[in-house]
């Protein structure tokens, strides 16, 4: 089974929040590397910085989280994957046409689902309710 974690899942893996226990439990059970893309890089770094802005954690904690993420890339717990972004955006547009007016899903969430398809994933790891709804609607297994 090929898993695709969205940024909400990844952030919960590296900084303590309400979903961290679920994320860590799933990672312990699955024990498979997760794909990491340019989209993940942007969204996780931004989420860490936004958390500092909102006072959820310190700059030191955010920097430590990023260093831990980079270590996971180095040691293969996360695996860098280049995506054919033009194809992913075309797929995302098709998903939007079919599902956005029904589910109310945001464009970045749609792009995550399209990216999951582009790597051949059959399971999405996400804590975002609308993204989970879209994933289920297009036949992906949803966890945790």
Low-confidence stretches: none
In what range is the share of β-strand residues? 5-15%
Cα separation of the termini:
14 Å
Structural class: mainly alpha
Tell me what you see in this structure.
By secondary structure, the chain is mainly alpha-helical. The chain has a single domain (3-143), classed as 3-Layer(aba) Sandwich (Rossmann fold). Helices cover 63% and strands 10% of the residues. The chain has seven helices and five strands, in the order E-H-H-E-H-H-E-H-H-E-H-E. The strands form two sheets. A three-stranded parallel beta sheet has the order 1-4-5. It has a two-stranded parallel ribbon with strand order 2-3. Strand 4 (123-125), helix 7 (129-137) and strand 5 (141-143) form a beta-alpha-beta unit. The radius of gyration is 15 Å and the shape is globular.
């Amino acid at each position: 089974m090929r898993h695709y974690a969205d940024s909400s899942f990844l952030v919960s893996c590296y900084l303590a929040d309400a979903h961290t226990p679920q994320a860590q439990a799933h990672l312990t059970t699955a024990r498979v590397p997760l794909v990491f893309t340019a989209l993940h890089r942007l969204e996780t770094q931004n989420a860490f910085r936004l958390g500092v802005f909102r006072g959820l954690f310190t700059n030191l904690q955010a920097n430590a989280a990023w260093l831990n993420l980079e270590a996971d890339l180095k040691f293969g717990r996360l695996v860098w994957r280049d995506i054919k972004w033009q194809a992913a955006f075309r797929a995302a547009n098709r998903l939007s046409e079919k599902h956005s007016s029904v589910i109310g899903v945001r464009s970045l969430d749609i792009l995550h689902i399209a990216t999951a398809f582009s790597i051949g994933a059959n399971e999405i790891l996400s804590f975002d309710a609308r993204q989970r709804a879209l994933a289920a609607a297009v036949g992906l297994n949803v966890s945790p």
